[in-house]
Amino acid sequence: MIRGYFHNDRPFVRAWVRLPGLGLMDEIRFLVDTGATYTTLHPLDGRNMGVPFLQLGGPVRAVRGVGGRADYVGQPAELLFLDHEGGYARLEIEMNVARLTRGLEGLPSLLGRDVLRQWRMDYDPRQNRLDFHT
Amino acid sequence: MRQDVRLGAESEKDKSILDILDYDTLRRGSDNSMAATRLFMEAEKTLLKEHPGKWVVFSKDGQEAMADSIEEALALSDAKGLWRPEVIVHYLDPDPDSIGW
Question: What is the pLDDT of residues B54-83, one digit of tens each?
């Protein structure tokens, strides 16, 4: 079981992320977003990881969201979620990496339905509990 | 979507996260990161009141530093020699209704 947590009433979960095409790896805090089709790395975390935004290649996806339209580049990514019993869940996905866009700077990265659809989520803010059953 | 993507061979691209860092190191990084997050959550209201619109760098031992931009915040984090997973870099958003984390 993977444990998430709430921050300002928003659900988060952590995962180690590796972008093999860019040779980068870091731990990312994802906002759990059932409204997001794709798991997405936003610029704050991208900068933290050292994503070379100017050289970022790959298929571009234009995404229309609550905050407007933004461009993303698909990148192969490995995600590793650690549980508290010595286990883990490991996934390989095509992750959206946001291009540098004004207005996205402070946004959290998103864990989308491409990952969430594979798990069961127990979402219980009253008990301060957010669990993912893989 | 789950994919069995394998890029290249005999290179870093072919390694998984667990080939690069062992489980205990990853676990320690995550635990320290969570500890920093919990400390930050306790301090957030005060920091937001005192430094709205700033970027904060917050470490697991409670050290904090303010910056005007994300670039400056990351530079501060580097200057302190902090391992990124163990540090919170956060925008103190003065708009409570904005979509921030």
Answer: 999 888 887 888 999 888 988 888 887 777
